[in-house]
Specification:
mainly alpha, three-stranded antiparallel β-sheet, two-stranded antiparallel ribbon, 7 strands, globular, EC 2.5.1.145, cell membrane
Length: 357
């Protein structure tokens, strides 16, 4: 019999620190570092992204819980105190994204920036955070797929022992769906890195590309899972979802059972709608001129507290007045050659506004 990895990393007295929390914290930190690094290319202050994370993470947790409870209201309506007990399980990644996006939209607008420009910078951080965060599910032996054989994990997937052993739960091996989604997101991260250096990319399109890539992968991985939120929908919708998932069957995969007895997985339906909406939004923004700004263009505040939003470099650009030459001209005597050279030296200390580092 294999021993599962202890989900508790260490304890300090009565306080237990779980691997799940450590992994999620690491995911948020890595995502933050990626955003800060890319933000520096546009002269943005790292504190802007740190504050964004401090606001976004709790908003994501709240959104994830509200999303889950909303779709499982029957389990909570008679026991409202259970709603806040997140440690008992029950959060959803799409709810986390909704919560984080709402908080970011408010914060970014208050700082005077375009939401689309900041969302583009944060997109790689979001997907790498999800790639790392899925390993928290691995430590907890949750969010797995349906039953498989040990030979499938060892001989077909060639997984190392520590993963195979952790997928042995209550006498049965299961699909490591956490691993499938994590690897899909790593490939997506590389894709986003490539896309953001392409000259054709417009504002908001890297963020939309993140949603498209993640949702496609989530659609197929979700069909393997046995803990999906589901509902009973019309037969044509269930047939459509099954038809779209059929390539997985051609590759020898079997769908996991419906947890709550429905015929449509909510995450699969939402994934399809997000992909369609993202493509439509990109097309509309280009057609109407709303996406005229390119990803590589300088980022400037568009309103709100613009003075507080500017980076130290932008403030330096505005700090040096060009008054000496004008004052002498106003007195009626042209500046001497030495004075002109002095003015040139002063102006040469200042970088060109809007240039990228």
């Amino acid at each position: 019999m294999f021993l599962a990895i202890n989900p508790i990393a260490f304890a300090i007295g009565p306080l237990q620190v779980h691997w799940y929390g450590i992994i999620l914290g690491t995911a948020a930190l890595v995502g933050l570092m990626l955003a800060i690094r890319e933000g520096k290319r546009f002269g943005m202050n790292p504190d802007f992204f740190m504050d964004l994370v401090l606001l976004g993470v709790p908003s994501a947790i709240v959104g994830a819980r509200i999303y889950y409870v909303a779709f499982k209201w029957e389990d909570y309506k008679d026991n409202l105190s259970e709603i806040i007990k997140v440690w008992h399980g029950g959060i959803a990644i799409y709810g986390a994204l909704i919560g984080a996006i709402i908080a970011a939209l408010i914060y970014v607008r208050r700082k005077g920036y375009s939401f689309w420009r900041i969302a583009d910078i944060c997109a790689p951080g979001l997907i790498v955070g999800q790639a790392i965060g899925r390993w928290g599910n691995f430590m907890n032996q949750e969010a797995h797929g349906g039953p498989v054989s040990e030979s499938f994990l060892r001989s077909s997937l060639h997984l190392p022992d520590f993963i195979v052993n952790q997928m042995y739960i209550d006498g049965q091996y299961y699909h490591p769906t956490f691993l499938y989604e994590s690897l899909w997101n790593v490939v997506g991260l590389l894709l986003l890195f490539w896309l953001r250096r392409r000259p054709f990319l417009r504002a908001g399109e890297l963020f939309m590309s993140y949603f498209i890539w993640y949702s496609i992968g989530r659609f197929f991985v979700e069909g393997l899972r046995t803990d999906s939120l589901d509902f009973t929908g019309p037969q044509w919708l269930a047939s459509l979802m099954n038809g779209l998932w059929s390539p997985m069957r051609w590759m020898g995969f079997e769908s996991g059972f419906m947890t709550y007895g429905g015929n449509v997985r909510i995450s699969q339906l939402l994934a399809v709608l997000i992909v369609i909406a993202a493509f439509i939004l990109m097309a509309v923004r280009r057609k109407t001129g709303a996406a005229s700004v390119k990803y590589a263009d300088a980022i400037e505040p568009v309103g709100g507290s613009a003075g507080e939003s500017r980076s130290g470099r932008e403030e330096a650009v505005q700090a040096e007045p060009a008054a000496p030459a004008a004052e002498k001209t106003a007195e009626g005597s042209p500046p001497s050659e030495q004075e002109q050279e002095g003015d040139k030296d002063k102006s040469g200390k200042i970088g060109e506004p809007g240039s990228l580092q």
